Amino acid sequence: MIKRKDKQKDNPFYDPTLTKRHRSSRRFKRFTLTSLVFSIAFLIFFLFDIVTKGTPAFQQAYLKIDVTYSQEAKQNYRKAIDKKYQNIVSRAWLRTIPMEIENNPELLGTKTTIWVLADDQVDQYLKGHYYKLKRKDRALIDDMKADGHAELKFNEIFFKNGDSKTPEFAGLKSAIIGSILTLIITMVFAFPIGVMTAVYLEEFAEDNKFTQTIEVNINNLAAIPSILFGLLGLAIFINLFGLPRSSPLVGGLTLALMTLPIIIVSSRAALRAVPDSIRQAGYGLGLTKIEVTRDHVLPLAFPGILTGSIIGLAQAMGETAPLIIIGMIAFIPDSPSSIMEAATVMPAQLFTWAGMPERMYIEKTAAGIMVLLTILISLNALAIYLRKKYEVKW
Amino acid sequence: MIKFALITASTISILTTFGILFSILFEAIAFFEVRSMWYFLTGTEWSPGIPGSKFGAVPIFAGTLMITFIAMCVAIPVGLGSAIYMSEYASHKTRSYLKPILEVLAGIPTVVYGFFAAITVAPFIVKAAAWFGLEATFNSALASGVVMGIMIIPVISSLSDDVIKAVPDSQRKASLGLGMTQGETIRNIVLPSALPGIISATLLGFSKAIGETMIVVMAAGLRPNLSINPLEDMTTVTVRIVDALVGDQAFNSPETLVAFALGLALFIVTLILNIISLSLIRKFKEKYKVNTL
């Protein structure tokens, strides 16, 4: 038997560096795999971090105490509860008592034991986070907890209320409504214009200077930093046209210009995927170009167009920078009722909360992020589902 | 009639670009009428708001470059590495799972990244720096740069993956047939062929990093700081634009108008990067007759 080493020596093609080269090749593969693993690990860590930070916000501390709806309480809401509870009950909730009496006069003069909203520090204390509470109050809460009079309950306020300066009273509702209004405006403008541009470029336009300019422009628009769209919205819609600042109308228009290139590019791809035989069959039957496009090509391309638009919508929904520039970070406790009123949107609301000093806002921001990401991921999943369902192999 | 409507719709994209350019340009000119353009471009002192306010943007440009540089140090190796693995090593099926996962990173809103950078990464960097006996601020350029780099990974990996995939297989086979290892084939044959596309992807990532706003607004500082220490706080063009416009100053005061001067600088730089990158990718497409991408 010939030893392996000798065999290699006799082989005229033997490359003494081969082992080294193979090792280097493996090293290279390991490097590429590591970088991929790094990105995915980051994603997992990131989601884990947000979920652990945000989950506590879905629960909120409530206290079971006596509330007196007296004439005194109507004048001074602090009188509605026993003095010893004053530091641990939410001030924002207490302030609603006079209005409650106003609305339900039969309550006047009654005394009931109900679950009331606790102060944010109590909430943090019960969740085992950092808190600022006096020893006396802590002892009181410990006693109440032992009696079952202090509990963490599902946080309805987070979805029912608008923004508030008191963290335990702040919710996402006005931001969600603002987001919906803004996105409606965005789609009303971006969708028809985007699809029409795509149809023109794909079906009608000849290759001339004009269409080439549009092409280059669309590619550039897609890559322009979003904050510059905010400057455009500020200078043109607000300063030139005098549309109201912070309104969903201006926000929606600004986002529409940003979403346009996404819709145009994906609609063009969808139109291009429709085979020419369809068009030629239409012409063969004597249809005009407009009829072929309207009745045959567009319906066939529609699922693709829809997919692209949903992705564009999702992107507009997460956009913050241009909206900050046009003033959509104002403090808005009430939900906007029209597109001309000042409003805030979800990402802008998260930005505002993230800048607040109270610890509870961090929790709320993370919880808001969970809500926002859930919506965005569902939108993207819907887009993928539509694409898969209507995918046609020609 | 219908055709007219279609042409009108298409014209809007051109109008938008010009709208952005002119609205920014006019306000920037209004700024340069009251403040020297030369000082804006070369001055090193930035002190708006105080009497005799100065607008020397050099520290701001430097801060932007620093944070972008950190971001690219993260994004280029990781993004390119992921792209190479997905297109060269992974099976078709694995690739079809991996790509959407990476694209989730691109779909995360930047305000979320900003929150993550400010709340999780920045305190971690302060702790880690203290461990090495260094001192980092809570608004360190490193925190926002690293998170921004992660945000840019899919920009680079997705486009590079397409480009690498588009390099004809005959090249790989020829190289392997001549006895090259797979690593050598990728490094010496595939990557050089795909280089225009990879550079294009990198430039797009670069332009995205320069224009990124929310991460730096939330995690980087407000203080113009001419320093090369990434553990210090720095500010960027976009941060100053936001800061100038959320204040209470009158709209025609230089403190507000300077936002448009900064915006103009941002517009010009990103536009140049985009044009170069788009022309590179077109060259690549012509070379290999790729229809998709």
From TrEMBL, chain A:
InterPro entries in UniProt: DUF3333, MetI-like, MetI-like_sf, Phosphate_PstA
GO biological process: one example: phosphate ion transmembrane transport
Family: Belongs to the binding-protein-dependent transport system permease family. CysTW subfamily.
Single GO MF descriptor: phosphate transmembrane transporter activity
Domain called ABC transmembrane type-1: residue spans: 176-383
Alphabetical keyword list: Cell membrane, Membrane, Transmembrane, Transmembrane helix, Transport
Highest rank taxon of the organism: Bacteria
Protein name: Phosphate transport system permease protein PstA
Cell compartment(s), UniProt: Cell membrane
Transmembrane segments: 31-48, 175-201, 221-243, 249-271, 310-332, 366-386
Transit peptide recorded as keyword: no
GO CC annotations on file: plasma membrane
Pfam short name (any one): BPD_transp_1
Membrane topology: Multi-pass membrane protein
Location (main, coarse): membrane
NCBIfam families: 3a0107s02c
